[in-house]
Amino acid sequence: MNVDKELDARGLSCPLPILKTKKSLSDMLSGQVLKVLASDKGAPRDMQAFANQTGHVLLSSEEAAGEYIFLFQKK
Predict the structure, then answer these.
(1) Whose CA is closest to 37, among 62, 10, 15, 72?
(2) Domain residue extents for the chain
(3) Burial 39-68 (b: 16+ CB within 10 A, else e)
(4) Choosing from 14, 28, 33, 69, which is the catalytic residue?
(5) How many CB atoms lie within 10 A of CB 10?
(6) Which end of the chain, N or C, is less surrounded by CB atoms within 10 Å?
(7) What are the pLDDT digits (tens) for 7-43?
């Protein structure tokens, strides 16, 4: 999958990963894909809730070595 933009939110605690994700998506065009890297343990729950509330599509959510990788498609 082509990623249009990447956000490194590792080391940040809630709510900063969500706020930075929101800001990054606001600078993108509809249909573009944002990759977010996060380390906050609450990130999977928070990112799913963010997608549900905003309408952006959470294409995937993975965990690897204590870090999380999310792919969002801007609505």
Answers:
(1) 10
(2) 5-73
(3) bbeebbebbeebbeebebebeebeeeeeeb
(4) 14
(5) 15
(6) N
(7) 999 999 999 999 999 999 999 999 999 999 999 999 9
Tokens of 29: 């065009």
CATH superfamily entry for domain 5-73: TusA-like domain (3.30.110.40)
- Do residues 34 and 26 lie in contact, with contact meaning Cβ atoms separated by under 8 Å? no
Active site residue 14: yes
Cα separation of 10 and 67, whole Å?
8
- Token pair listed for 74: 């801007």
Tokens, residue 58: 């959470």
**Burial status of residue 25 (CB atoms within 10 A of its CB: 0-12, 13-18, 19 or more):** buried
Q: Which two tokens stand for residue 32?
A: 């573009």
What are the φ and ψ backbone dihedral angles of 53, each rounded to 5 degrees? Answer: -80, -30
